[in-house]
């Protein structure tokens, strides 16, 4: 089936774009595998009128809003491949393919945590990565900061806004004498041994076990995560990236391939709050529609 626009990804950016496409009377298909990165947490914060909403409820409400507009349809499926053709693009899913003049990629990010046993048992419940998303809920607690030395000072400063009881864990990375000195001046302990395990119950972190068997008591933590956008289904598209592997896009979100756009975290190559992704998805959608309307006029 032919569409004017195919949106790949049903997160905040993709759904916000779909809402705008519906209101713009654009024949749109949203393909969403429904494996959002934020499924590990029970609450999302910082979105005006939606503060504290669960990611699942947010998505349900967003799809209810979009359902009012008959030009938008959804497919719960995984994208396998995208190929460019003379008229636009062909998007392949298991057993089906769809064509569209324009494509918006809004799949978010692939996320990986540190190589620490039991990490996933606590991530999203008492271990987080974003102070602006979850710092308030973790306020005044004894917090572990599990970050590389390169990012350590930045996170210590940010998290000091929420707690004065911070402990740094470098997970085997050595630190300079200068780093030790300023941390000591701020009464912040630092452990450079490898982390052997995380301990607690029901998702609540209570101790960190080091390789030397020392157990350090904590009440939660913030950890560095790794993200990328090297999705297998993009293999047949020659999308240009910069030296940091971020997609190169213009001010309208258009990539090096005409009529192929990117929005939200996928464009930023960095995890953010849902309000930011949704705002960007809506903005890029308007740019896509203006481009199409101008070309057809």
TrEMBL record:
Residues 3-267 form the FAD/NAD(P)-binding domain. Its cofactor is FAD. Keywords: Flavoprotein, Oxidoreductase. Gene3D superfamilies: FAD/NAD(P)-binding domain. Transmembrane segments: none annotated. One of its GO terms (molecular function) is oxidoreductase activity. InterPro entries: FAD/NAD-bd_sf, FAD/NAD-binding_dom, Ferredoxin-NADP_redctase_2. It comes from Staphylococcus equorum. It comes from the Bacteria. This is NAD(P)/FAD-dependent oxidoreductase.
């Amino acid at each position: 089936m032919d569409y004017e626009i195919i949106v790949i990804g049903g997160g905040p950016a993709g759904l916000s774009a779909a809402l705008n496409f519906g209101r713009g009377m654009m024949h749109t298909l949203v393909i969403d595998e429904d494996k959002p990165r934020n499924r590990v947490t029970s609450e999302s914060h910082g979105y005006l009128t939606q503060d504290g909403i669960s990611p699942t409820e947010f998505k349900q409400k967003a799809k209810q809003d979009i359902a009012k507009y008959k030009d938008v349809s959804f497919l719960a499926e995984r994208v396998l491949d995208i190929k460019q053709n003379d008229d636009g693009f062909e998007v392949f899913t298991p057993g089906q393919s769809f064509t569209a003049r324009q494509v918006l990629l809004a799949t978010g990010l692939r996320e990986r945590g540190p190589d620490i046993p039991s990490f996933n048992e606590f991530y999203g419940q008492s271990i987080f990565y974003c102070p602006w998303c979850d710092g308030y809920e973790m306020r005044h607690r004894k917090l572990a900061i599990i970050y590389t030395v390169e990012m350590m000072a930045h996170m210590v400063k940010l998290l000091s806004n929420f707690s004065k009881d911070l402990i740094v864990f470098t997970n085997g990375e050595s630190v300079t004498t200068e780093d030790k000195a300023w941390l000591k001046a701020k009464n912040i302990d630092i452990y450079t041994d490898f982390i052997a395990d995380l301990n607690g119950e029901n998702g609540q972190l209570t101790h960190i076990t080091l390789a030397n068997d020392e157990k350090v008591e904590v009440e939660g933590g913030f950890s560095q995560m790794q993200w990328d956008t090297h999705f297998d289904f993009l293999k047949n598209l020659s999308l240009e990236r910069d030296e940091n592997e971020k997609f190169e896009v213009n001010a309208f979100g258009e990539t090096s391939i005409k009529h192929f756009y990117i929005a939200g975290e996928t464009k930023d190559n960095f995890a953010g709050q849902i309000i930011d992704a949704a705002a960007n998805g809506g903005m890029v959608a308007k740019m896509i529609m203006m481009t199409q309307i101008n070309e057809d006029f």
